[in-house]
Amino acid sequence: MNAASATPLLRDAAVPPAASTETAADTAAEPAPARNPGQPFDPDWFTDLRVNLSAVERRIAGLAGRRSVKKDAQAAWLLKAITCIDLTTLSGDDTAERVKRLCAKARQPLRPDLQAALGVADRRITTGAVCVYHRFVATAVAALEGSGIPVAAVSTGFPAGLIPHELKLKEIEASVRDGAQEIDIVITREHVLAGQWRALYDEMRDFRAACGEAHVKAILATGELKTLRNVAKASMVCMMAGADFIKTSTGKEPVNATLPVSLVMLRMIRDYEERTGVRIGYKPAGGVATAKNVLEYQVLMKEELGRPWLEPELFRIGASSLLADIERQLEHHVTGRYSAFNRHGVA
């Protein structure tokens, strides 16, 4: 799809047929997607992008009325959601002990009695990753040893991204040396707001190179990009420069992940795959705090991109309190009673 044809795609907001929800908790049948090698800088891919806001809003408004996931199907979708969570602590008062508790929860996110009652006692269920500041990467790597759970480090002067470029690269390299397998970088928002697309591309290429074998997630901070058109363009440029995932937010902006922003970013992922054959992952972060919220994002992913984007290789949710609410909802599914939220601690 060329840039000119992107306009009707976003304008018509056509709803594809939905597949059965029965597959939502199945294991992946396909191999892990290949790394994104990136593409040469080409403004023709994004210069003429337009977003029809009314069509986006209609598409999102129609989701709730068209899809209802209930009972066993809902439990299956929520189990799958657990495996896609980047369990996160990014607070100024973080400590090594807090990170260790978070890692223990990532290893065993669901109580064994609930897992048995749901008929999945034989399944190994973990979160998709643990996400921390660089300061705690080595602590998390040690706590997760042997689990297969990757550590993701926020980097490049998170959350504002306003430190010198050379220090951003050094921070990435330090986190990789400490064992981080994923790096969540923040872009320089000024490049987007000023239309400096080549500068954004060059920055992202440098970040990708500094990550080496570690996967890189590009945080767009969509709440600070002002328009959905900017979100679409920034998404395309970051993918063109080699991002393995595009991510909505740091969780620190006044407005973080939203469904309209997500729809625009997913359409850009679809466009990029059509052009290159490369599948890019997506990560909403900030504000996805309840089981109801995550089901909305799962349905959107399934309808817009298809079944492979329900797996942690291509879908992550940056969250801290979400896991507790999912566990609470699953207990209600098993017992018919809601327990107090504080009985389901994050860590």
UniProtKB/TrEMBL annotation:
Catalytic activity: 2-deoxy-D-ribose 5-phosphate = D-glyceraldehyde 3-phosphate + acetaldehyde
CDD domains reported in the protein's UniProt record: DeoC
EC number: 4.1.2.4
Record keyword Lyase present: yes
Signal sequence, renumbered to the chain: none
Keywords (A to Z) from UniProt: Lyase, Schiff base
Top-level taxonomic group: Bacteria
Bias (Low complexity) ranges: 16-33
Class of the enzyme per the UniProt entry, highest EC level: lyase
GO MF annotation, one: deoxyribose-phosphate aldolase activity
SMART domains: DeoC
This protein's pathway: Carbohydrate degradation; 2-deoxy-D-ribose 1-phosphate degradation; D-glyceraldehyde 3-phosphate and acetaldehyde from 2-deoxy-alpha-D-ribose 1-phosphate: step 2/2
Pfam families associated with the record: DeoC
Family note: Belongs to the DeoC/FbaB aldolase family. DeoC type 2 subfamily.
PANTHER family hit by this protein: DEOXYRIBOSE-PHOSPHATE ALDOLASE
Protein name, as recorded: Deoxyribose-phosphate aldolase
